[in-house]
Amino acid sequence: MQRFMTSTLGAILGLAGIVASANAANFTDTSFGISIDIDDALPKQQLVRDIQPFVSQDNMVSLVIRRAYDLSVIDFVDELRNVGYRDDRHQVNLRISGEPFQAKIESGRGLLIPVQGQVSGQPLNGIIGAYSGHSGHGFLIIGTARSDNWPAWKNRMKAMFDSVKFVEVDSEAIARQWQDRLKGKKLQYKQANTGYAQSGMVYYGGAVQQDYHLCSDGTSIRKSGAAGQAAAQNMVVYGQGTNQGRGTWQVAMQKGEPFLVVRDGPEQGFKLEYEGDTFLLDGRPYTITASELCK
Fold first, then answer.
1. How many structural domains compose the chain?
2. Residue 178 and residue 160 share a domain
3. Each residue of 69-112: pLDDT tens digit?
4. Could you tell me the pTM of the whole model?
5. Strand partners, 274
């Protein structure tokens, strides 16, 4: 369950409920492979990696969609039933509060699981929908409201879950969009750190930089460098190193997700995603700028 739910609930779930108009607008996303009618009281928020949240303006009610490639619905429910979900970092505790029941879904399988729990000490009720389709296609939907407002939201949540449909995942279009986004760009990662070893009274510091230049003709240039320094009484040690390679690059889909594939030696694959406005390459924040090396 950690594979699918870590960072999904604690960072995004709203607590409490509001009563607003029950109108809905359709949300269709071919990268998630989902179509769902979202209650108008839950505006769409920024994508957080593979999580699409919809949260009320006062952050008190939420519906969250997360990709879950190759999801086993039965295994997911069994784990939720046996151990529940606990995230101490975000003060989240969830447990099944009723028997799972079949979702109204075509061309696949879905189970809806009533849950109860707490986030930051606030009681909540909700539903988790686990959906599995063809070719490993799947997603989770988590809808919650504070317990004292759940009666007002129960039917509205049900309407959203009843509207869920699978749509075809356009893997080629996803890969093409990423390819176009990265052509002629430099991806750069920088990190610096300092420290102090009290036992030897040594101060130390270092920095690393990794650049990928992705040229429009499919060639790539990789440049990396590292520098470090240690200082103690009457002594300073300094070192640095650089490395460079040339090869090719492309974007490929793996298990329903886009990866940057670089070949300048052993083939390497790096997951491509955004967290808000931050571009992540294999989970590390990189900047994207025009490449000064690509011709």
1. 2
2. no
3. 888 899 999 988 888 877 666 577 889 999 999 998 888 899 99
4. 0.72
5. 279
